[in-house]
Predict the 3D structure of the following.
Amino acid sequence: MSDPRSALAPAVETRGLRRTFRASRGGAEVLALDGVDVRIERGEIFGLLGPNGAGKTTLIKILSTLLYPTVGSARVAGHDVVLEAVEVRRRIALVSGGETSGYGILTVRECLWMFSQFYGVPSQIAWPRVDELIRIVDLEEQAHTRINRLSTGQRQRMNFARGFVSDPEVMFLDEPTLGMDVNAARSLRAYVLHWVREKPGRTVLLTTHYMAEAEELCDRVAIIDRGRVLACDSAPALRRQVQGGQHVELEIRTPDGAGAVLPGLGDIPAAWGAPHPERGTRTLKFRLPPDRVLLPVLRRLEEQGLLVEGVSTRETTLEDVFIAVVGRGLDEPEASG
Amino acid sequence: MAVTTLAGRLRTAAWLGWQIESNWADPLVFAIYSVARPLATALILMGIYWAVTGGHLQRDAFLLFYIGNAFHEYVLRLVVGMGWVVVEEREEYETLKYVYASPIGIFTYLWGRSSVKFAQATLSVVLMFLMGWFVLGLRWDLGVVRWGAFLLAFGIGLVAVVYLGFLVAGLALLLPRAAMTMNEGLAVALYLLCGVIYPIDLLPRGLQELTLLLPFTYWYEALRRFLIGHGASERLSALSDGQLLGALIAATLVFAVASHFGYLALERRARKLGRLDQTTLF
Ligand SMILES: Nc1ncnc2c1ncn2[C@@H]1O[C@H](COP(=O)(O)OP(=O)(O)O)[C@@H](O)[C@H]1O
Ligand SMILES: [Mg+2]
């Protein structure tokens, strides 16, 4: 089982990975991945940060042997995902968040045990592990409840636990905390961190569109948009890339409270933040380069009929990096055309 | 190690199959379904047979097709069942991708999952035989049964049935909607082609040659021959017992290899198109 070639190889390595999907009803062909090269070392928590439709799930599906790349190749734990799928499957596990899959008639405990058996985990190891995971995802009271009686959140937590029953070498977590309540998400993140540090060589590839999750968990983060990795480094190093200048947040009174149209700030990329409907305002975020001053920007906004009610500056976050690299905010739809 | 792992995986998949099946099947409904459906088919066929032969129901000819009809339960249950596993796991439970991404192997998984179907079919067959014997008076001298040859032929034929199931599972990966009707269609086609309810001698010449390539044709013939002493087809009666078994084995081997690679080709296509985790029906 312990194959030296595999143990030495990086956890994930992709070369020029490209994936297109056939157009649905005459539309243009979708380019989900556009030449992705990533290398993930053993022991890392690697984050893939990108908006909806960036290609995160597509990459995870290819790496977990569910989908073929159109062009390019990928290796997981030293094995080719197309040619050596069986070897890859022995070493990986997959959790898709925001999904409520499961055999409704099984209990939580039965389902977790069953998957451990698919991986050939000996019973004397499997049972204690199943019970420990049930405790970790806080489903002790539901351990003997049928899955079809669980709430959506409980099913998601069970699905998360399922991923860990086989103690994989490489764990793929596709938006694992999507839609979870804050406490559950926090405790699952803590577990991921604990799991990776507990035993050397365990690796996690996590996709997310939550900045905080990437920031908190990941040793390295790749920013992905429209199928391309635009930046890849540790969070501090990424932040350094955009340092210099000031991060400015303006609170702007928007006439109809919506403010859907991004005001033009010349060559400075900006993004909308959260709206404050109770105050009828919305936050506008941008980075002011070191050689520029704020006043002309404010004037420009005034010319566009926007009233600036508050100004604040703050430290660089991954979101600033994202805006700098991608040219728009993470939760913003792409401008059409 | 490898063998115990494989056994464990098979057992687990089988256990899941039984859990799922026993969930919806109330024992009474289950019993009615297991007996009533095959019996109703048999009775309808008896009616048709009666009409076709102008009321001269030959007990012997009827027995031949009664036996074929009984064993056809395996094709119905296993083949349709295996196609259904794929559709149900992907569309309803949304677990197919996790099964695929695990090392269990889809062949092991489907073998295991379909064991419950095997049990159901066996129950139907036993009940049909009891019904035939005690109610319809379909009796024969049990002294002519050659148990060894019968069990051998039975086992080999089942392998062919399961491989047909793999092929259908592969089609279900690609064409979930069509697969549902196609499954049943395939079972009906075999019903008509392979000498289940009438001897293959009645088929047009070209179709006869086609049917002689399929293991199922030899299977139904061998089961009859080893159970009641003779088969239904004149053409196949030219084969000695050894030749018949040999033809069954050879046809099964070819069919199994072809199905195996056929399935793999379909699966590759499904992975290319991203069908392993698509939910399209429900
Ligand atoms: N099976 C599919 N058929 C057609 N288009 C697809 C399919 N799967 C994904 N896509 C498209 O590929 C792009 C990337 O999707 P995805 O990988 O799911 O993004 P993410 O997970 O980052 O939200 C999207 O534009 C999506 O619509
Ligand atoms: Mg996704």
